[in-house]
Amino acid sequence: KKLIFFPSTFMHAVDKIYQKTDAFYRTNNIHTIGMCNASTRNTPKPPWLNRDINCEINKNKNVLTFSNRQLKKGFDFLYKLGIKNNKYVCLYVRDEKYLNIKMPSNDWSHHSFRNCDIDNFYECADYLTKQGFHVIRIGSIVNKSIKTNGNSMIIDYSTNGLRTDFLDIFLLANCSFCISTSGGLDNVSLIFNRPV
User: Could you tell me the CA-to-CA distances from 59 to 48, 85, 86 in Å, in that order?
Assistant: First the structure.
């Protein structure tokens, strides 16, 4: 048996999806999935936090998979966004709003150095669209929308009112790659062997 630690943010989303749908099927490669956070008393916190430093995930073809119904739902959503070739990049840019809204009684100033301004990523997103990729900005609570300057291939999914826990997981699991400033969501792409 292998014990793989996933961050609590990922597991909470998976648990929500599992309870609401026919969810993910776990393969025989992974028998136990534990949450990696300081409040989990019975699960030791590995020294590498939530990084797969021994590439255990990459050694397995699929850790989690989607049901046929979920695949249809996800690909129908991509089609609705105008993404017909499934060639898209997820863009996750961390800012302070999520933690300030979700846990307002905590002082998160020690994490300020990790926050970024989404406007700094417009040129990158625009370049990727010229290479044939759609760019989907992800995140559930953000300071502001990404500028698109009329480029319909840049989609701010985090602010367009269509965001769901399921689609967060689906988009990150099926993207060509993910650009991230490092936060809980980028672990979804890692779990599904997508480049980050």
Answer: 18, 28, 25
